[in-house]
Task: structure prediction
Amino acid sequence: MTAALPSGDQPSPLSPELTAEDWRQAKAAMAIALDPVGNGASAPWANPETALRGEFVPAGQPFVKNDEICRDFFADLVLQTGTQKLQGTACRPSGEEWSVVAVEPRKKGS
Result:
């Protein structure tokens, strides 16, 4: 099942525990990890103010969907309530920011 994506009142599509600042830092790491011309390496993020942190890892090669560049990813979040392992897809219209279009708990073995 795919999670509902963020509305204006939810700062992050990954977890309601992430504040707007957590998500800002996470999005920056996600952009680095998903960069289609990047080296495919993981990109960590951390917010010392909330002690939340995480990491994005690209999964597979970038692909084009609806005139946007998209890429699947894995995300590990370290939250107040514990660790959350997710998988999802983010897309980016040319010249714009990445947006998470689908996210769900990581399947076993992924």
Remarks:
- Residues 1-9 have pLDDT under 50 and may be disordered.
